[in-house]
Amino acid sequence: MASEDQPKPGESITLDTLQRDILLPQVQAFLEVTNDPQARETYLGLKTAIEALEVPSHLERRLGAIVEVALTSGRVRHLFGPAAELSLNALFLKTPRGREVAQSLTELNKALSTLKGQTVEQITSTQRSPGAYSLTVKTKNCQLVIRFEQSGVRVESLEVDLSR
Fold first, then answer.
1. Hey, how many other C-beta atoms are within 10 angstroms of the C-beta on 119?
2. Surface-to-core class of residue 163, CB atoms within 10 Å of its CB (0-12 exposed, 13-18 middle, 19+ buried)
3. Which residues have a Cβ under 8 Å from the Cβ of 155 and sit 6 or more positions away?
4. Are 93 and 141 in contact (CB under 8 A)?
5. What are the sequence ranges of the domains in the chain?
6. Could you please report the per-residue DSSP string of 85-150?
């Protein structure tokens, strides 16, 4: 994603009307099941911001959580179609959580680039814990362990110059 698409720290996230139309029912669903007065206040503020197509920085994490739930559940694609899913994916990348995921993928791709031109000697996967898995890629010169968890993907370890 181009950096000009990213809000600067403290800036609000601008929504389009499709994103507004997708997100309002999602926020309303959270409002309907929330009894906690503080959470209700936050969701009401988020709903107002979504209606205005501008989500202030202090609500970005909450917005990201709702977008993530809507996307990972498959609900958005099922109810609104693939264009809506693409739109919310683009929005997710503007949220703090989305930026964290994008950064972890950048780091993973950098680590994977160390494998370029090498012959893979071994590749294995293991379960670290329920919902957490690792993929180990070993070449003559390096071993890369990638961890996949609900919170994202990350390089668990990278060993180089194994031939020494």
1. 8
2. exposed
3. 107, 108, 111, 144, 145, 146, 147
4. no
5. 3-94, 111-160
6. HHHHHHHHTTSHHHHHHHHHHHHHHHHHGGGTTPPEEEEEEEEEETTEEEEEEEESSEEEEEEEET
- The enclosing H or E element of 49 equals helix 37-51
Paired tokens of 152: 């994202």
In the block, residue with structure tokens 């403290």 = 10
Q: Each residue of 23-58: pLDDT tens digit?
A: 999 999 999 999 999 999 999 999 999 999 999 999
pTM of the model: 0.79
CA distances from 105 to 27, 55, 101 (A): 28, 25, 6
Q: Which two tokens stand for residue 68?
A: 């993530």
Show pLDDT as tens, one digit a residue, over the chain (164 residues). 445 567 766 789 999 999 999 999 999 999 999 999 999 999 999 999 999 999 999 999 999 999 999 999 888 999 999 999 999 999 999 999 999 989 989 999 998 898 899 999 999 999 999 989 999 999 998 999 999 998 889 999 988 876 65
